[in-house]
Amino acid sequence: MAQLEGEFQAEIVDPKWSRDAGVEATRALSHDLPAGSKLGTVECRANMCRVETSHGTVQEYQAFVKSGLLSRTKKLWNAAFSSHVEDPSPSGITALTFIGRETSPGPEAPSVRN
Fold first, then answer.
1. What is the sign, positive or negative, of the torsion defined by CA atoms of 74, 6, 1, 96?
2. Cα 13 to chain center, whole Å?
3. 54 touches 88 (CB < 8 A)
4. What is the model's pTM?
5. What is the spatial distance between Cα 95 and Cα 62, in angstroms, rounded to a whole number?
6. What does the buried/exposed string (b/e) look like for 31-65 if buried means 16 or more CB atoms within 10 Å of the residue's CB?
7. Which of 38, 40, 75, 87 fits 94 for a cystine, CB–CB 3.0-4.6 Å?
8. H or E element that contains 90
9. What confidence tens digit (pLDDT) does each residue in 23-60 have?
10. For position 27, which CATH number holds?
């Protein structure tokens, strides 16, 4: 995960795509959030977006991944992603997801870890 974070931080901002992708990701992922989950920071650069989410349980996180990132009817663009639980605690979990630009190879291979 540190490698993806480093790659993301090293990217330049593509002014048009970054702005439009951030708005689109926020809209699409907010639409698919299960009850008990919250969308945090959404930031996009030249080739990927970084999305922070919080969830009450691992099951809520898994539901978010399934409906927001894997579903055939998802409202987000079709691209590779990598999603990881960053901060598990008794009060819930924080997850970090990197979503590639549709025209780029994306962040590593698509994966879901929990």
1. negative
2. 17
3. no
4. 0.86
5. 10
6. ebbbeebebeebebbebbbbbbbbbeeeebbebbb
7. 87
8. none
9. 999 999 998 688 889 999 999 999 999 999 999 998 99
10. 3.30.1360.100
* Residue-range definition of the domain harbouring residue 65: 2-112
Helices (H) and strands (E) in the chain, counts: 3, 5
Residue whose pair of structure tokens reads 């809520």 in the numeric block = 60
Which structure tokens are listed for 33? 């959030």
Alpha-carbon span 35 to 64, nearest angstrom: 10
Q: Please name the residues in contact with 95: beta carbons below 8 A apart, sequence gap of 6 or more.
A: 52, 53, 54, 55, 61, 64, 83, 84, 85, 86
Angle at 109 between CA 104 and CA 111, to 5 degrees: 125
Question: Structure tokens of 28?
Answer: 């699409």
